[in-house]
Design a protein that fits this description.
By secondary structure, this protein is mostly helical. Helices cover about 80% and strands about 0% of the residues. The protein is built from nine helices and no strands.
Length: about 250
């Protein structure tokens, strides 16, 4: 068990393994994105209240959903870094923070566009919106903290602790619409009935887009981690051999 765990934490093993799996993630991601976007734009009927504005949901909901995964991911990676001192875990935690900030920013921006039409305002200090904005600032704080500390080990530990603490806000985001009387609507219920408020022709493309964005997240995280591995391991023999092989391939 320990040998398997050690292998999983090897940057070299991860780089080789992820290179084999990337095509199997990129291809379905691209297909699902195309299908989901075309379906949402052309075949989803206008909402009886929101009209065509409802189509923003197919961008906003996937980004808002995946943005909640970053702090738990960083907390798990940070805990592994603190307990077992695995380099790969810290690499994942490091690259996840800027990705999380981008995904959270996209969720906030798409939500503001949606809210400007259905609420009549671009922003309101609603429980869900405010806690999501706090998450964005926390992610920026993690990025800034790592950049501010010159000692890489101290930076890894400090960012791990902050990531664990940041998970508290994820619960606030998740349950804010239940705890407070907010303007943001609660989660919608889906049904297989065509007479339901959210029939399959509405929620099926949403599920497709959510899966596509999750795959996009996985691909982005893997690519960023691979770049971080090459940067940190650039003095190792296996990376130098990899660079030489690539240079020889380009020359031939």
């Amino acid at each position: 068990m320990w040998l398997w765990f050690s292998k999983l934490g090897s940057p070299k093993w991860f780089y080789e393994w992820s290179g084999k799996w990337l095509p199997w993630l990129v291809i379905p991601m691209a297909l699902l994105l195309v299908v989901g976007i075309i379906w949402a734009l052309l075949f989803v009927p206008p909402d009886y209240q929101q009209g065509d504005t409802i189509r923003i949901m197919y961008i906003h909901v996937p980004f808002a959903s995946i943005s909640l995964a970053f702090f738990p991911l960083m907390a798990v990676a940070g805990t592994i870094t603190l307990v077992w001192r695995m380099k790969l875990a810290d690499m994942v935690a490091k690259v996840a923070a800027p990705l999380g900030a981008w995904f959270t920013a996209l969720a906030l921006m798409s939500g503001s566009i949606w809210g400007s039409d259905i609420w009549g305002t671009w922003w309101i200090w609603d429980g869900r919106l405010t806690s999501m904005l706090l998450q964005f600032f926390l992610l920026v704080g993690v990025i800034s903290l790592r950049s501010a500390l010159e000692d890489s080990e101290a930076a890894a530990k400090a960012c791990a602790v902050l990531s664990i603490v940041g998970c508290i806000n994820v619960f606030v985001i998740k349950y804010s619409v239940d705890w407070w009387n907010t303007l943001h609507q609660p989660a919608s219920a889906f049904s297989l009935s065509d007479e339901a408020p959210n029939p399959p022709e509405v929620w099926v493309p949403l599920v497709i887009m959510i899966i596509a964005i999750y795959l996009f997240f996985a691909v982005s995280l893997i690519l960023s981690t691979r770049n971080e591995i090459l940067e940190r391991e650039r003095r190792t023999q296996w990376v130098q051999d990899l660079v030489e092989a690539q240079q020889k391939y380009n020359y031939d």
